[in-house]
Amino acid sequence: MIDLDVIYNEDCMDYLCDIGDKSIDLTILDPNYNDWDKLCEQGLIRQAVRVTKTTGNIIMFTKQPFDYNLRNEINPIFRREIVWSFCNGGAWVSNRMPLVSFQKIYWCTLGKDFYFNPRTGVEYSEGTKDFKRTSKVFEGYHGEGRQFTKSNDGIWLRDHLHYNKPNFGPIPAKPIELIKIIVRCFCPDGGIVLDPFIGSGTTAVASTQLGRHYIGFEKDNTCWKKSVERVNDTHRQLTLFGNDRT
Q1: Cα–Cα distance list, 127 to 123, 131, 163 (Å)
Q2: What is the mean pLDDT of residues 39-48?
Q3: pLDDT digits 0-9 by tens, 208-241
Q4: Nearest to 66 by CA among 30, 107, 99, 35
Q5: Which has the closest alpha carbon to 113: 163, 203, 53, 162?
Q6: Under 8 Å CB-to-CB from 122, ≥6 apart: which residues?
Q7: C-alpha–C-alpha distance, residues 148 and 133, integer Å
Q8: Element of type H or E holding 132
Q9: Rounded distance between C-alpha atoms, residue 42 and residue 46, angstroms
Q10: Strand 102-109 to strand 78-85: parallel, antiparallel, or no bridges (unpaired)?
Q11: pTM (two decimals)
């Protein structure tokens, strides 16, 4: 029996089969990247497809050189690639190669009627003002420019997101600003987010703050304890100060 809003100190590959078919709104897969080939052979993608609703989304994190085989594996459900870049924490490859300062986010969908909210909740820059875009004229075509008006729900999702890696704590973690965008844009309000490799618990924290449920797995005992502590702190803060729905 898998309960909502719980992080299990277990290997997800032993327990994903206990999650009901088509019961998850958003599945986030963020394992150690050098494990991608092994996990695909063990059926991780098949399980993710099984548990995710046909209206749901699957998000996968990866980077070079582990992206190639994964991209081929997910080809039937692949929809779009988003680039996450950062200025700190660049990975060294060799003396004849540049530092790797970006990772890839693969967005997969299982049907035509998938959920997608393009508004990130991120505020516009101070200099952004309402305006009418310039007309488009080329090869005899003339199109009037659209009127741009700032949305109360924040900027539109882009295929390039820039957030530096967190500089605190012994456990590697994704920026919570990045994960909140993913949860907000790809999971409906009140929906369920599954993160089988939840690490320090960022997905659970983001889901809780945004009014979504979560299911998490983390087999490393140190990471699991850290993630539970973070989520408990988040619940205490929300009890005291209310929910952050941005």
Answers
A1: 11, 12, 20
A2: 98
A3: 999 999 999 999 999 999 999 999 999 888 877 6
A4: 35
A5: 53
A6: 154, 155, 177, 181
A7: 7
A8: strand 131-132
A9: 9
A10: antiparallel
A11: 0.91
